[in-house]
Design a protein that fits this description.
The chain is mainly α. The protein folds into two domains: 32-113, no CATH class; 115-184. It is 80% helix and 0% strand. The protein starts with a helix and ends with a helix.
Amino acid sequence: MRYIVITVIFIFLVAGCNDSVEKVDVSSNWNLIMTKLEKSESSLTTINPMNRGVMIKTANQIEKHASALYLNHINELDTASLGYVLECLAKSAEILSNYNTAIDFFTEAQALNPSSEKAPAYLHNVARIYDHVLGNKELAKSSYEKLINLYPEHPLSKNAKIYLENIFDKSEDDLLKMIKENNS
């Protein structure tokens, strides 16, 4: 029995020492994770979207790095960095066909810093996913309207307004008729 107690104490001491070393590594490691995330995310622009396997592999890398930052280093990130992490989580979720998760992360990124220059794009992405991916016209319209109301002078808002007034929720026949009328 005495041997078991000594062994357990030894294990706790070793685990405690390893834990403090790991904390130092983890806290100094967030910059390295951010660098890996930035590298993975920037590689998206060079990938042919038709190469689904590479897109998924890259999205999984982005999700891994962004999740590590979000879960383990959220308190160490400034608002801009956290916004970037949320954007990366949203992009990877969308590529991986986790559309509701993508919507949640885009929404969180916009709410985190509504005055950022990317905030209107986050709302536009929410509306686009509802509209063109999920086919939820009610939530799409609501999202476009939120974009227009919050950022009325932004080009995406102006485009959304034109889209809602002229194209949104119109049948192909209605659109063809409208095109013919405008060309006459």
